[in-house]
Amino acid sequence: MIKMQQKKLIVKGIIVVMFFLLVPLFASAQWFLMPEWPGDRTRITLKFLHPNLSANYYYQKDLSLFSGIYDLSINMPIKSSNGRVNIEASFPIAVNSIKNETMRGNFYLGIQWKHSRKKTHSITSIGAYLPTGSDDKWPTYFIAMPTDPVNFPKYAGKMWDFRVNYLSYASLKKFELGYEMGLAMSIGDEGYIEPIAYLRYGFYGAFRTGDFTFRTELAGFIVLAGAAGDEDTSIEPFTNSIAVGVRYGRGAIRPSIFYTRCLTNKLRYAVKDALGFQLQFVL
What we know:
Layout: H1 2-26, E1 43-53, E2 68-77, E3 85-96, E4 101-104, E5 108-116, E6 120-129, H2 138-147, E7 160-172, E8 175-187, E9 196-209, E10 212-226, E11 238-248, E12 253-262, E13 271-282
Antiparallel strand pairs: 1-2, 1-13, 2-3, 3-4, 3-5, 5-6, 6-7, 7-8, 8-9, 9-10, 10-11, 11-12, 12-13
């Protein structure tokens, strides 16, 4: 019995090591909840959120250490001379050890334009989530969606989500402030939610000291049209989340750690909060 457990641990360890070694081969640069501005170098990002389940959910069972939601993304300049135009793509998955299932997310494709002045910068982006996700994993959906509710289209099942977004930020020595605003629409009849149109928004503040950046984000959305407040899908008409974390920003590999919590009470029935880890590879 002990030998079997040792073999399982060895196999899990090998899988984890291989996963992190293969990340650069698979790979939207992003911060914790909000998108990141395009740069003049390709960035591959792996983000992992481990949810803290409420005691009400699954009869006080808990997820394994590596269960949660993963997002593997790439942001690449197509005009490398000035970095003004970038393409981005991401592929999310959710791992649920309680039900022993893995749920595919919806693949994202987008393009960004950056406009810079002396101290202020703005980014306009358009993109779409493609209907590549699993639509028969309800238990995992009810973990993945409240873990990262402001980015729910990643886990909404086989649905299209079209969006246009505007991000602006200003730098003043060691401080940085910014906001985003955008319109989006989720359509389709095979996913976990009914079609909706909604307004996205976010605000953040950051402080840089040495090679570290401390950042706080508030992000959310307001449903403008369509079904919302449906207990079967957990999409609320007005949803907000907050994230606080720190990133090491020097070198080719840039790790981050952050904490996030949904501020909408109804969505904390299953997930109270989450701890996030992020690795960004700058090529």
